[in-house]
Amino acid sequence: MRFYYVYVLYNQSENFIYIGYSEDLKQRVTEHNKGRVKSTKSFLPLELIHYEAYKNKKDAKRRELYLKTNRGRTTLLTMLKEYFTE
């Protein structure tokens, strides 16, 4: 069974949040933390704090694009409120 993932990475010391999409979540998180992704290599280490799995690629991409909007980020921060207030 194939899944498509939308994921959220976080660097606490920089208060940096990254939202991405991948077909192989484990490999993609590893790539981020090895500095192989240009947009995140300055914010290492990154912690996987949230992910969602979708059976349909278009649904996953739509969710990723939404979470990258201001409204989507607000939704995400509300969903993960307890994590950010620990």
From TrEMBL:
Query: What does the organism's lineage look like at the top?
Result: Bacteria, Candidatus Yanofskyibacteriota
Which family does the similarity line name? Belongs to the UPF0213 family.
Per its UniProt record, what InterPro entries does this chain match?
GIY-YIG_endonuc, GIY-YIG_endonuc_sf, UPF0213_domain
Name of protein: GIY-YIG domain-containing protein
- Ranges for the GIY-YIG domain? 2-77
Record-linked Pfam families:
GIY-YIG
In which domain of life is the source organism classified? Bacteria
